[in-house]
Amino acid sequence: MEAKFHPDSPEDIATFYIQATESIQERWPRTLKHGDCFALFDALGDIVKPAGSPGGVFYRDTRHLSGFELLIDGQRPLLLSSAVENDNVVLTVDLSNPDIYQDGRIVLPRETLHVRRSKFLYSGICYERIAVHNFDTKPHRCWLTMNVAADFTDLFEIRGMTRARRGTASVSVEDQCRVWFRYTGLDHQNRCTDIHFDPPPKRLSDSQALYVLDLEAGEQVSIIVTVRCISGQGTPPPFSIPYREARRSAQTAASLGGTVTSTNALANRMLHRSGADLSMLITDTPQGSYPYAGTPWFSTPFGRDGIITALQMLWIEPSLAKGVLQYLAASQATKLDPRADAEPGKILHETRQCEMANLGEVPFGRYYGSIDSTPLFVLLAARYYARTGDQETIRKLWPNIEAALTWIDKYGDRDGDGFVEYYRESENGLTNQGWKDSQDSVFHSDGGLATGSIALCEVQAYVYAAKRGAGKLARALGEHDRADALADAAEKLRQRFEAKFWCEELGLYALALDGDKQPCRVRSSNAGQVLFCGIAEPVRAARIAEVLMTPEMFSGFGVRTIASDAPRYNPMSYHNGSVWPHDNALIALGLGRYGLKRAAAAIFAGLFDASTHMELMRFPELFCGFARRRGTAPTRYPVACEPQAWACVTPFALLEACLGIVCDHARREIRFHTPLLPGFLEEIRIRNLRLDEASVDLRLRRHGEGTEVAILSQRGDVSIRIAQ
């Protein structure tokens, strides 16, 4: 993610710090997304005075609708209910009229009119049907008004950046049924918002539509409003056509991979929400499906986020990894560009299409300031091949994989010490370029910030796993000398890593080495992620598990990013004491890899308990790291993304960790390594788990200290094995 941290003083605020003047979920609790368009509404389905908040309808990181307020006789309706449906397609809001007075008497008693608003996004258009039903036994007249506005504010302005100049805007009313907002940016791109009303209102201005409704007893009327954020002519398609397409698209996305259910109703809600949120975030690209990182701040492709999301889902849905790999290969850097922190072979950090990115006012048009995306790309390719045996795709990607490996050795390790370090080339880029990219997230035991070229512990583990995996790919492609060289390089890195990063007094690996090769002796979750890649000696992995489960590291709901006794610990910070679901998922996968299932199950249980307190049982990007107290909920982080791709798929990764599940294409085998279901799960069923053309339906049931695995049905050539 881009830098977002808790500053110690106003002078410490980073360039890309996200202002937190209010809680997103308190002000804008309803989120919709489709493709490059997302929207945040209040509980009534409105957008009222969003100012510097992310409320509104956005297309490619520009706010195309900054105002939409529905009024009955000049007053806001009474809220009855408001919810996004389970598949994340439609926001349904039920409203009624308040008491309407005229000359001191009530002329329209409250709860006489029922208003149902149905809103959804599809292909750059926000559709809404407003149905007004008179439930009285006599006719009523009401004045329905809709106040509209479009400010074309760049998302980075909303995040707190200021601009000396902006483009030019205009608005016009056409055909008495549409309002056109137009904006010509300083990047010379024309952006527009076309609001169409059907039927035409009685009166339409550049900021308001007015309907006078004369409703007979029991009568219902409907108004269709379309907000088009893309250039287009003519009347938008009828409401029912894109509605069906949106539903069909969501059903297709939700059907990806196997279906996991359990005997725990709350766990089923959590799993369903995870799948639905992932479906909403997946966006079609020319190279395949890609999970956008999260709304509202990161509704765009991020390299690291996409890769980790694909890794977490690899066992259940490998096709997502193929889309991620192909997209990142197509956007891989091919030349030096210090302004974008780009070097040949480096994998994308993020890409943006907004005005400020196009102008270079922010460096994120196509930005490469990520130290871990490149080794993670290679790692994902290797694990995708082990899962699928898709040699055709790997052959096509092999030049990109080799370019990434060259980057690791040439640009990632410029000082030749065997470790991959980051340093910022762009003066406007990110200071810290690991996943904890806040300005103050890498520091020493005295609280002093690490300086110089920084080698993060988990990045060395990623490189180790990438080289081992690439060696196996090279051997599969017949390049045996290359395979041997990569395996040898991985082993040498492992030995250097153990010698330089292990801190016996901490029982963990150092957070990082600074520019002087001095270790940052801080207990951090980064050391837990090291286990995910298998670089740690087993005896040290067991030590790490013990430390991660101490009260200083484990809040009760999850593992904190740093220990509570660390000098910069702040449970309300972005990276220095908070709990990140995806971070915990990678830690759990590492613990499971070393057979430390009880610790993995404890993490799963803590996060499950946290999810029961979250609206919709949706895992946020992060939450605060305060210690868990009996009967209390986890403390929310005010500007966390919800949904966030690598957070929403956390339950599937945690299942993999606890079950020790491996889908081995080469052996035509699905293995379970000492499976252990956490205490809240008595039984789960996995339907349609595929291995190439074969598939199985499985039931796993807790039995004493272990877990039984039963085959319910089997189609094709695949075997099931329990390994100890």
Summarize the SSE layout with pairings.
Elements: H1 24-27, E1 30-34, E2 37-41, E3 56-59, E4 62-65, E5 67-72, E6 78-84, E7 91-96, E8 100-102, E9 105-108, E10 113-122, E11 125-134, E12 140-149, H2 155-158, E13 168-174, E14 178-184, E15 190-198, E16 203-204, E17 208-215, E18 220-228, H3 240-254, E19 259-262, H4 265-281, E20 282-285, E21 288-291, H5 303-313, H6 319-330, E22 350-351, H7 355-359, E23 366-367, H8 373-388, H9 391-410, E24 455-456, H10 457-476, H11 480-501, E25 502-503, E26 508-509, E27 512-513, H12 526-530, H13 538-548, H14 581-593, H15 597-611, H16 645-648, H17 650-659, E28 661-664, E29 669-673, E30 683-691, E31 694-703, E32 706-715, E33 719-723
Parallel strand pairs: 29-33
Antiparallel strand pairs: 1-2, 2-3, 3-4, 5-12, 6-7, 7-10, 8-9, 10-11, 11-18, 12-17, 13-14, 14-15, 15-18, 16-17, 19-30, 20-21, 22-23, 24-27, 25-26, 28-29, 30-31, 31-32
Helix pairs in contact: 5-6, 5-8, 6-8, 6-9, 8-9, 8-10, 9-10, 10-11, 14-15, 14-17, 15-17
Question: Span between N and C termini?
Answer: 38 Å
CATH topology of the largest domain: Glycosyltransferase
* Overall average pLDDT: 94
Overall outline: globular
**Tally of separate helices:** 17
Percentage of β-strand residues: 25-35%
Number of domains: 3
Q: How are the strands of the largest sheet arranged?
A: 6-7-10-11-18-15-14-13
- The percent of residues in helical segments reads 25-40%
The biggest beta sheet is recorded as: 8 strands, antiparallel
